[in-house]
Task: structure prediction
Amino acid sequence: MSTAANTGSARRYVDIHAHFALPSTADERVRAWQAMLGRGIYFPEPHEWSVERTLSYMDSSGTAMQLLSNVPDSLPALRASNDYGATLVADHPSRFGLLAALPTDDIWAALAEATRARDVLGADGFAVTTNYHGVHLGDESLTPLWEQLDAWRAVVFVHPDARRPPTLDHPAPLYEVAFDTARTVFDMVFRKTFARHPGITFVIAHCGGAFPALTGRLRLLGNESWVPQRITADDVDAQVSTLYVDTAATAVAQSLLPAVATVGADHIVYGSDWGAPCTTEASAEANRSGLGQCGALSPREADGVRDRALDLFPEAARRIAGSTDL
Result:
């Protein structure tokens, strides 16, 4: 029986993929909006994240908890974001958890922030970007970080870089993020990152992006003589079967069926992408309802997805269990 069932939160959603942002001024929001317009992302107005709106949506959607993540593109902003995320959890311990951001372009800064997030901020897990300032997660420089997180048996949430420039005049969050995710996951497979660090639970955003659908191609061709870093089909299977994926913007058969075939229905966790500028109440609700209606999962499997994150975050499960808010 899952942890969620033991806590009495069964059938309530636990959302591993939810974003937040620091409080900002109107001018700061306008500048961020203009920067997105410059990258071909035509949001109709500046985006503002708020605790009140988030809690309201969580209540209306039956969401017990969101595991919050945000990975700014500078170290000072990243540290400030982690600090603010920790205050949100302190203020609402049964509703929020923190996946602390790590600056994976600098191994020593990443190690220091991971230690601070764990020992000082009490983070539930960690969030990383597939390609942070040109450093992909399979880069050998990150080995000390993975070794430390492996020893802690940490959960690491992997999110693509949505700040990339447009591709063929199409905004990066539309589909380029899915290929960025696959590129990084497959590089980590070739470099045996997942095999060398079995104590880390990696959760890949957006149903794994394009990697589940392309895993069959990697199994077929990865060990051919013309491939510089050869890998067998058995090695591919052994590594990708350990990964978890979330349902953010992907609770449809076209995304879920490849994920089920690649990682299994029991390695799919609920994600909403709430808090991202591209997510509205309407799109979040369409995605949530699709989980049980698209036909890719049985009713039992869909129920398991809703609260599986609590099996990955036992401390968060305890906070929910001890709350009188739900």
